[in-house]
Amino acid sequence: MALLSMQNISKTFPGVKALDRVSLDVQKGEIHAVVGENGAGKSTLMKILSGVYAHGDYDGDILFDGKPARFAGISDSEKQGIIIIHQELALVPQLSIAENIFLGNECASKGVIDWRRTNQFTEELLAKVGLVEAPTTKVDNIGVGKQQLVEIAKALSKDVKLLILDEPTAALQENDSRKLLDLMLDLKAQGVTCIIISHKLNEVRYVADSVTVIRDGMTVSKLDASKGLSEDEIVRDMVGRDMTHRFPDHKRTPGKVLLEVEGWNVWHPEHAERQVIRDASFNVRAGEVVGIAGLMGSGRTELAMSIFGRSYGRNISGEVRLNGKPVDVSSVDRAIDAGISYVTEDRKALGLVLDETIRFNTTLANLEGVSSGSVLKRNEETKVAERYREALAIRTPSVFQKAVNLSGGNQQKVVLAKWLFTAPEVLILDEPTRGIDVGAKYEIYSIINDLAAEGKGVVMISSEMPELLGMCDRIYVMNEGALVGELAAGDASQERIMSLIVNE
Amino acid sequence: MEVAESDTNAAPAVRTKGIGAYISANLRQYGLLFALIAVMVFFQIVTDGTLLRAVNVTNLLLQNSYIIIMALGMLVVIVSGNIDLSVGSVMGFIGALAAVLIVELNQPVILTILICLVTGGLIGAAQGYWVAYWKIPSFIVTLAGMLVFRGLSLWLLEGQSVGPFPKEFQLIATGFVPDIFPAGLGVWLAEMFGARKVNVLALVTGIAAAALVVWIGLRQRAQNKAYGIEDEPKSFFIARTAIIAAALIFVMYKLSLFRGMPNVLITMGVLTVIYAFITETTTVGRRIYALGGNQKAAKLSGIKTERLTFLAFANMGVLAAAAGLVFAARLNTATPKAGFALELDVIAAVFIGGASMSGGVGTIVGAVVGAFLMGVLNNGMSIMGIGIDYQQMIKGLVLLAAVIFDVYNKNKQG
After folding, report:
1. Is B281 near chain A, with CB under 8 Å?
2. Measured between alpha carbons, how far is B219 from B261 in angstroms, rounded to an integer?
3. What are B96-152's pLDDT values in tens digits?
4. How far apart are CA A398 and CA A394, in angstroms?
5. In chain A, which residues have their Cβ closer than 8 Å to the Cβ of B360?
6. What are the angstrom distances between the C-alpha of B348 and each of B81, B200, B343, B371?
7. ipTM of the complex, rounded to two decimals
8. Which domains does chain B have, with CATH numbers?
9. Which structural domains are found in chain A, ordered by start?
10. Could you give the CA distance from residue A460 to residue A462 in angstroms, rounded to a whole number?
């Protein structure tokens, strides 16, 4: 029996048709996956379902639990038991787990909170989601994986009938993701219906009973897991073409050693006694792509950022050599001058000035390149931005478009353009394909290959092991701040990387 | 989210935008200009033409000169993502310092001006140091500064007013640029305009400035066209440029009928042009916008964010000092109350001019127009004899309305 049936849903924004007669049917007690590229219309559909876009703002009908649903706001849909957990978690970090779970829904009489009851309920809920933490623990002090569980516990506290998880594992690492997916299966057994939005097809295959693929605002296909799901088929439906290779072909002949880091030690910026990076040494050759694998929190980003102008940590020691000569990387501008670039994992917070144009962002790290005597040559700047727009196939009506209006993949390309314009010898790419869709990933991989072909050294940090295995010539494995192993491309496999991490 | 990201779909929406879409996308810029014109027309009518009389136009410029000078620095501070609450106090303190140096210690005027500007810079630097390198919120540092320098000027003046200043110091604020054209020309023009006398230099400067605005506009337009950059509709360009050029000539014409260009106008004009140039077309200006737009991203792009913040405050200090000199010279005395609550007028002018509290947004021209809008409101209401109580309320509501307008616009676009 269908719990939810959305029929012929259309939604138009000024000048754009975001959804075009989309239909979505979810059976009671199943896990239903909604997949599609970024910009396909998944989030818009979920916003309609959860009442963010009120009834009347869209065309089409929603039937929930057999009755027509017309939500005027989120509180309406929550009353019916539809709870959505967004990609960016909506927890208050300064409050405790219990306070967060009952936020706006407190166990109180006449405005006075009953803490004993609150904590007792919280414990029950935490047991349900398998989280071993005291209800009074501050959300700030637990990891993202556990915060995700708190969100789910919060949903359970509201008597949820339909739980929607938007990219729940995007910020999680392998084992936490697995736990979360198992919890979903658990909830299914308890009768909770789930919708999961995900890019990760292996996860979809693991949990989903049925799949709806959306492309360009339209429902492309509805697949039934009992008949077997093939990743290739889903990908083909998502992108509208065959993707026989997930990684572009490449043939590399690494040259001389370009970048060498030796005996690198870094301490935590606030907790002075905590050593974050322990005696790390690695190197990159010209025309080589070197991967750094490891779990989240293993220190990969900290290693990269501390090398890049001491942007992280304190009491940093060790030597960085470029072309055999020691270089000064004690500040970001010196590191840039030396020929090192760092492309951040968090493009929105650390990579882009979102409210400014593509042109502004493209030249930001090398304003000297488009100015004479510190006066900007704005036409020159436009030319540079146009050049990178073409070279990297940044899809935008003009380079005067604000960065905030671009899709994740195109934003990532703008960040890359910014760093390419500094003419680096070595690029450190931190999670270069995080949160971008399959098609854009392929393009980013192609750019990386081109860089290597030009003789640049590329260091690639990634949590997605298949990506490292598909792209890198060598892979370093990092664990708890130390580089614990080095594998040549031919010898590397997911199992070997994991065993290096676990055995340490 | 999905809509904003579907960039292929967004393309036609941008390319085919008509005049209506253009207005709504640039409503803020035009809105401010129209608001200023509307307010001026309104007061011109209700004050029976007093507002735009030559004497009053001169007065308007003199009255607002120190606000505008400080608004230039405040714009930079606010764009960098900070705020400076101490400028009113610093201004008063510098006026007091000048009075003590000149009147009580008999120091030469030039030396005094120099000492005052340097002191202002040091004060700004001292505050900027804590904000930039110690990451102490600027609100707190400058709130402290506001109290400290208010107290310091009281102490320096021992609670008394000190004055009067020698003639040459007063000239900073009350002097006029002498006409360099032969007197006969002025007399001839005066006959033509039916006026008592005409300062030809002011008139010529006005026409030259208007011509410059037109020329720069045309050049920019030609360049945009050459590079295929989308520009405002032609009719808008003509209308906007014509209004600005006409306003420049009109103001200068009015000034020429009185005593010509005040010295302060030159200072103000030159500073405005310099700061507009710095913020719009230099690497330093660009970096300040980046710093305010996203400090972390700016820092990771090799921008020395601390030094920039520090410089923004030091610059603010120098400008506050300059304003303090102008203010003291205009009043011809330094009082312990000078500059009281003036920081609020300055900050209001910048926000009315379209700057954003969170940094990264705002223009020099906007801040100057915002300051004039406030100035015309003050002046017009005073002429009408509206009490200070109502004046405050109305100014408050104008500030609120301007910011609500901004937020509403942003929401509509987003």
Report:
1. yes
2. 28
3. 999 999 999 999 999 999 999 999 999 999 999 999 999 999 999 999 999 999 999
4. 10
5. 353, 355-356
6. 16, 36, 8, 8
7. 0.86
8. 29-175+262-413 (1.10.3470)
9. 2-239 (3.40.50.300), 257-339+424-503 (3.40.50.300), 354-422 (no CATH)
10. 6
